[in-house]
Amino acid sequence: MSAPTVAEQQASEFDGxxxxxMPPQDGFTADDLDRIxxxxxxxxxxxxxxxxxSPQKLFHMLVLKILERELDQHVPDGLRVAxxxxxxxxxRQRPEPDLLLVRAEAFRELEQTWFPPEAVELAVxxxxxxxxxxxxxxxxxLYARAGVRFYxxxxxxxxxxxxxEYENDPASPSGDYGKPxxxxxxxxxxxxxxxxxxxxxxxxx
Length: 205
Hints:
Largest sheet: 6 strands, mixed
Shape: globular
Number of helices: 3
Mean pLDDT: 90
Order of helices and strands: HEEEEHEEEEEHEEEEE
């Protein structure tokens, strides 16, 4: 069965559960996300498989709200902030980072549904329990090898946040990120933007 034929099947609701179309033998493609009807919001494609997002915890929502505000205030000329918007990294890879810094020219039209990886300067993922393996292992590989220069992984530590800041390592033969810089209490960085961000007491910010 070809991928377009599968993708055109109706995703339906049965006994309160969403019933998704059966994937083709080689998995779904990035373009299939635009063809499958009634997908739950923020569905991602990783290695040809549909990934459904669990309900957000309060930590996740608050970190995104605070960091998005900081990025908007400090974004350099030529870049724009995007939230929860997918990136077509490869034929069967279309994740949806929580936050992105994207080159302004990539905002082409109101009907677009993804950015190309070459337009993305920074991808940010806030880790939840169900996304730990993807955010800690698979997504850094995918972003790095697609040419996304910077990747931030944000994790909860009590009431605080911890930021793992990755950058492409030019010495890596596979194109992977180097060892991350770990930021506790305060995130201070100069690339891809100048930013100093308080990571403490997220609940009461």
